[in-house]
Amino acid sequence: MTRSVRRWSAVAATTLLALGLTACGGNSSDTSSAPAAVPQAATDAVTWLTGQLENGVLVNHQYKTNDDSTTVELAYGVRAIDPRSPALATIGKALAKDAKTYSHPGKEIYSGATAKLLSFATDTGADPTSFGGLDLVKQMDGLTAASGRIADVSKYGDYANTFGQTWAVRGLLNARSKEAPAAERFLLQQQCPAGFFRQDFSKPGAKDQGCSGKDQPSIDTTALVVVLLDDKASGDQALASAIDKAAAWLKGQQAKDGSFVLDSAPGGNGASNANSTGLAASALRLAGDDAGAAKAATWVRAHQLPSGCKGELAGEAGAIGYDAPTLVEAGRGGITAKTAYTWRLATAQAAPALLSVPASAPAADCPAS
Question: Least packed by Cβ within 10 Å: which of 32, 47, 298, 301?
Fold first, then answer.
């Protein structure tokens, strides 16, 4: 799927890189980047998402803690659809306030959290060297080995993976860090010959730090690489080739109903879900597969709550359910403190897919109570 001109150049003015990214130092008030004819379904998703915020951040009431990670996902989803949303400035302040407790609490330093904050800061024009009192560039550099592999500094263990590596590459490239080339090379090592990216790294001491040929395919990881780095591929032949190969692999994984599953390996769980389908839809859109993106968006739309639901779901229009059983469960008890995380992450990651939804695509029926 070679493209002489990156698909990003063609769609940036209307979609902001699917998950709402702008160039480093971009001005969110620039009207030239406003999406044209945004589908109502996408607008409804933004309305629901921003309504979940409390002083600019999502709060997990089940565990009584701020959910900064999903807040970043929410911000990128909102920017894709409504880049001038007033909620974005409030989110920025909240994330800066939480920067230390989220990424560097005490002696712990988390690479994935640092990578997300660095990407957010550099994509929104904030100073990444002084974000909430942290120099995120220095912090991310310090978590990146000479090989380019990122790692946590924690007594609880190292849980870094390709998800965090992808966010780190974006942030480091945006910041023009000296560690960016190595981080990118290590990320590309995680791509398997078939085109997909594996989610988990090899053990730190393993001789081979790349795909072993026996790794499990990951729709979400592969799609995230395309979504976060497609705009970085112009002039970078290695990255462009990897993204084209990843997009081609994704296209071959789409089910007849338009959906994608988390685990596409033989013998995998085979469960279609909104997160995987939403991320893949955004990747397909960037790759120029508008028909595939529309088909995936139609599946996402069929799992979005409509307006007019009664009882516990009154006022929840726009929320996207992870899968069909999630909708059924919500009909019985609404969206609760226990289930809110699943709904929020699904909606944040899948909402940008609705930029491709056909006008005729129906929402879900109101779940029976």
Answer: 32
* Backbone Cα Rg of the chain: 19
Backbone phi, then psi, for 131, in 5-degree steps?
-110, 110
pLDDT at 299 over 60: yes
Distance CA 193, CA 247 (A): 13
Q: Return phi, psi of residue 310, to 5°.
A: -100, 175
Please measure the distance between the N-terminal and C-terminal CA atoms of the chain and give it in whole angstroms: 46
Q: What is the sign of the dihedral through the CA atoms of 8, 11, 13 and 15?
A: negative
For residues 159-197, b (16+ Cβ closer than 10 Å) or e, as one string? Answer: ebbbbbbbbbbbbbbbbebebbebbbebbbbbbbeebbb
pLDDT in tens, 10-34: 333 233 343 443 333 333 334 334 4
Cα–Cα distance measured from residue 328 to residue 306, given in angstroms and rounded to the nearest whole number: 14
Q: List helix spans (H) across 82-110.
A: 87-103
**Stretch 150-167: mean pLDDT, rounded?**
97
List beta partners, residue 35.
Answer: none
> Phi and psi (nearest 5°) for 240?
-60, -45
Query: With pLDDT > 90 as the criterion, what percentage of the chain qualifies?
Result: 86
3-state secondary structure at position 221: helix
